[in-house]
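Design a sequence for this backbone.
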């Protein structure tokens, strides 16, 4: 019982901390947000989570400029495009990132829940839970906070995205929350950043290959994710991760 109370207390403390950080630092530019967060949590306390997707180079280039030794976590679901895996290694080398950590789903979980690799055909939520949510909870568990590259313009569900937010007992930092598509393009061009090759084929939000299509004209950047379904998020940015982070199994 006391452990449950402690988890609740930690969650409330994180909510208060996120609100305070948002009020104090939420309007800084992205590089300053990364610098402030690194000062607050230290290299051992914060990581950058990256999909190495369509515009991942922007956040990673800022992280590398502040400190290329900040851990960068990549979740290898086993369903990525080959182009994304190659791009991950090339971009990490370009930017001089020195602590790339690759996380995988648990073999025993895949054997039990997705033995033939076709779970995504019948239940995309269950597939994301075993291949993304649980592994991501394990990936960020050692840290007090982590950076993401999410932006408000990407979808209606992200329209009010704060820079600092609480996820269970931890803090999630979104340094690019206020950036626009033109901001991203300008940064990519000014810094001559390598682009995920799938972008040239209309993939403006890139996830696992079975559930990702090119974006449709006139729709938001994430329209090609789980196309034809009501699903818009895999779960790592929603309550599923919160629940996993407060699980006694972590």
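Sequence:
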């Amino acid at each position: 019982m006391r452990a449950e109370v402690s988890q609740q207390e930690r969650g409330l403390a994180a909510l208060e901390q996120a609100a305070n950080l948002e009020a104090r630092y939420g309007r800084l530019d992205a590089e300053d947000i990364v610098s402030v967060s690194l000062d607050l949590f230290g290299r051992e306390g914060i990581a950058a989570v990256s999909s190495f997707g369509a515009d991942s180079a922007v956040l990673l280039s800022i992280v590398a400029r502040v400190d290329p030794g900040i851990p960068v976590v990549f979740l290898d679901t086993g369903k990525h495009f080959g182009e994304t895996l190659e791009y991950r290694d090339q971009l990490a080398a370009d930017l001089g990132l020195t602590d790339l950590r690759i996380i995988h789903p648990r073999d025993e979980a895949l054997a039990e829940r997705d033995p033939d690799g076709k779970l995504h055909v019948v239940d995309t939520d269950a597939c994301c839970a075993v291949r993304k949510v649980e592994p991501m909870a394990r990936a960020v568990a050692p840290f007090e906070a982590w950076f993401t590259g999410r932006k408000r313009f990407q979808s209606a569900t992200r329209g009010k995205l704060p820079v600092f937010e609480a996820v269970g007992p931890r803090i999630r930092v979104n340094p690019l929350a206020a950036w626009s598509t033109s901001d991203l393009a300008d940064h990519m061009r000014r810094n001559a950043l390598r682009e995920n090759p799938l972008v040239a084929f209309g993939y403006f939000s890139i996830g696992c290959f079975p559930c990702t299509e090119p974006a449709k004209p006139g729709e938001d950047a994430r329209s090609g994710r789980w196309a034809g379904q009501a699903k818009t998020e895999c779960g790592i940015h929603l309550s599923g991760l919160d629940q996993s982070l407060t699980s006694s199994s972590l």
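The chain has one domain: 2-245.
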